Amino acid sequence: MPWVLKRLFLQLLCGYKLHKTAHIGFAYVSAENVVMGPGASIGHFSVCKGLSTLHIGEFALIGKANWISAHPSGGARYYEDDIERRPDLVMGPHSAITHLHLLDCTAAITIGRFTTLAGYNSQLLSHSINIEKSRQEALPITIGDYCFIGTQTVILGGSRLPSFSLLTAKSLLRTQFTDSYWIYGGVPAEPIKPANVNGRYFLRTEGVVT
Question: What value does the mean pLDDT of the chain take?
């Protein structure tokens, strides 16, 4: 189906809010609420399912062959004690998820503006099993503005990467950091050294790095 017709179908029958310059490729997108701003895009062969809200800010992009899923809210004994859980993905303006990543949005994942989930095969996993309680547990993941996340990283539920931060390739983030303009990395991730506050990556006015 041509994109013009597909957009009309998604808007009229599914209630999606898609800017006229937004675009979805040959991808599967199913969420209760979908909002895509000007120039936002989802690439071919990506899957987005089970979410309450998928919000992609202006000129933000989800690249090719990403798997983005969540345990839907309500209707099951899983997470029944967590009434505030929101299975959402919210991407700020000019942010990017490149290709071949896995995002578990059982609890909300928030990605700030001008942030890049780079490389391939990173995993953002918002849910796991609480061994002490013997219960499924879902905790949100927060990534700030102007962050850079290297290839093949793992970010666990409850983690926070502050704005203007770098997370090195193959790192494991499992805690909440608070200091901006730092390079974090390792397994588990820890502060390595300060980042250059004048780095041009932190000063961009366009999301795509050429």
Answer: 94
